[in-house]
Amino acid sequence: MDLFLSTPIEFLKGVGPQRADLLKKELNIHTFSDLLFHYPFRHIDRSMFHTIDQITDHEGFVQIKGRITGILESGVGRNKRLIAKFQDHTGMIDLVWFKGARWIRNSLKVNEEVQVYGRPKAFKGRWNIPHPEISPVEKGGTGLQPVYSSTEKLTNSGLHSKGIEKLIISLLAQFKTQPFIERFPDDFMKEYGLVTQKEALMMVHQPSSLRDAQVASYRLKFDELFYLQLELIVRKKISSKKSKGYVFEEVGDHFNEFYKNHIPFELTSAQKRVLKEVRKDLTKGHHMNRLIQGDVGSGKTLVALLSMLLATGNGFQAALMAPTEILAIQHFESLTEMLAPLDLNVQLLTGSTKKKNRTVLHEELEDGTVDILIGTHALLEDVVKFKNLGIVVIDEQHRFGVAQRARMWRKNTSPPHVLIMTATPIPRTLAMTFYGDLDVSIIDELPPGRKPITTMHKYDASRLRLFGFLKEEIAKGRQIYIVYPLIQESEKLDFNNLMDGYEAITRAFPAPNYHVSIVHGKMKPEDKEFEMNRFAKGETHIMVATTVIEVGVNVPNASVMVIESAERFGLSQLHQLRGRVGRGAEKSYCILMTGDELSKEAIKRMQTMVRTNDGFEIAEVDLQLRGPGDLMGTQQSGILDLKIANLAKDGNIVVRAREAALSLLKDNKIDTTPYDNVRERLQQVLKSRPNWGKIA
Ligand code: ADP
Ligand code: MG
């Protein structure tokens, strides 16, 4: 790196030894370069004002101008708050502080014109602005002000956002006259609409307009995403060259016999397409690492089954791994039934497989007697060895950790082909990044004859009417799920809620006319299974459960899904749960029960569920609400090290950056002279990051 940028931060004017120390410890800023790349996370448009009457339909931050007309304190103890009545020419709103009341009270001036910046919240139907930022009205309304992240310690030594801004302004004054290498050639920047990196760095800190800020951040985001895509594509090329895979030469008798004579229904065209993609992988001699995304009920199991028959027909063994015991059992039962006409040995292995049976099973796996093994995590144990495992199918992938998946690779001298099936649809742009190393197939079609599920959002107050509705459905011969949340942090409370709910339901639906099942995580596996089976056979009318039933179970006669405290579930979980109904010929319902006080996000989740059944649309909203790291449930977003790009919001830039990366790698354009600097940067990136893509 060049000399100027690598200058230690203590050499900047305004940074003494103490501040330098803090910058290093708190923000990991050691050099001029680190400070230059400490981007503002937002710009406040100081020239833009809202009026109070616009607040009700505005999302996010607002800036309003007006005066405080009165100050009061209300509540006692923990409920104590300071309220300032604030007025502009369109109306009145409360500014509220829950902390620091005395200090703030002294700083507030009544009847003086000020500007207020903050994020309005609704509380019991009334709008207020909690903990706003108040400043004197700025003369001549300067344009955009950058906002930097800071910490309490930094703030105490004057390095709040404004203080950091000052340092950066002084750094920019020097940076302006320094030479700075532009890595992209002119043509490239023109094609992708990019300003130079130096311009972008100058502008992102001190934009003269909103447009400037956008242009600058576009370039900087593009940079991050471009190198990320380049890295992923290159790594994938390297790994697919290296890892040889078994070749399944022929379609084989098993597949042909089943497909011609025993398949229970015609495949949808999406199922056919995905199966072709799989088949192609298996003949190429490379190791297959493919992700199949398909909404709940899209028929992934059948694709898995047919893929496994490709393996057995070529003399290999196959394994199917499910995230829960209930699901593994269900797969085992439905597959043994479907495969009955074929001469295949299908076995089940779970945590509750008896030791005696286990020993036999282990032997039969090793001598090749078993053709297809279905099971849970138990399958991963080192004692489980195969004669020649050709393919592993992993169902409902999101329940398995990355490390667990990697263990499957060690089952053979040569790794088996891997097919991962997920019902948590991942938006395309995100899949490109997280699964840069996997090939992705999409089943984007449901089997014919499915009736869309009607989803309703109801408040707890309408519970009596709900019970009435449930009785009508039961009278028609339908069955019902009622699901309660159970999360670790509040396990005890949740468990009590579940039990209270169960009691209330048995009272409202008394024997002998009604039969109610219950299943939860604290029960013994055999009791769970017993209850699940009773429900599956239609012997009970209502299944009260926690989310243990979330994935995979298939009871076509169940047509109503009631989700209690629905506001506590994430969108993808709600969608999964809803997917348990709508599997039969009957009209199905999903009823979301919530309390009265809902956050804005919870309302959005409920509205989204009511509006659409489309898993991909739901995943997009989920991504917007939660951000990608959370969605994946892994630390991967941290490893990606994105400072300014946001995978949730910058999908269009991801697409452009990927196009650019692909076009550079095509015909080895990247090896030509104009791209010397890009290549150099890529080498740095490849060296500095662990190869995490490989284990995904
Ligand atoms: P998921 O993708 O959620 O795992 P499943 O594989 O469990 O979905 O399939 C859901 C239901 O659809 C099952 O009852 C299955 O038998 C049925 N099914 C699968 N494929 C088809 C098809 N091509 N035509 C009709 N029904 C199908
Ligand atoms: Mg499934």
Account of the protein in words:
The protein has 696 residues and is an alpha/beta fold. Among the domains are: 73 residues, DNA polymerase, domain 1, CATH 1.10.150; 94 residues, OB fold (Dihydrolipoamide Acetyltransferase, E2P); 154 residues, P-loop containing nucleotide triphosphate hydrolases (Rossmann fold, 3-Layer(aba) Sandwich), CATH 3.40.50.300; 159 residues, 3-Layer(aba) Sandwich (Rossmann fold), CATH 3.40.50.300. Helix 9 packs across helix 11. The chain binds adenosine-5'-diphosphate and magnesium ion (MG). The site of magnesium ion has 4 residues, from helix 11.
Q: Can you lay out the helices and strands and say which pair or pack?
A:
Layout: H1 17-27, H2 32-36, E1 42-45, E2 62-74, E3 81-88, E4 91-97, H3 101-107, E5 113-118, E6 121-123, E7 126-130, E8 133-136, E9 144-147, H4 152-156, H5 161-175, H6 186-191, H7 197-205, H8 210-242, H9 253-262, H10 269-283, E10 289-294, H11 300-313, E11 317-321, H12 325-339, E12 346-349, H13 355-366, E13 372-375, E14 389-395, H14 402-408, E15 417-422, H15 428-434, E16 439-443, E17 454-459, H16 463-475, E18 479-483, H17 491-508, E19 516-519, H18 525-536, E20 542-545, E21 558-563, H19 571-578, E22 589-594, H20 600-611, H21 615-626, H22 628-632, H23 636-640, H24 651-665, H25 676-688
Helix pairs in contact: 7-8, 8-24, 8-25, 9-11, 10-11, 15-24, 20-21
Short description:
Helix 19 (571-578) links the parallel strand 21 and strand 22 (589-594).
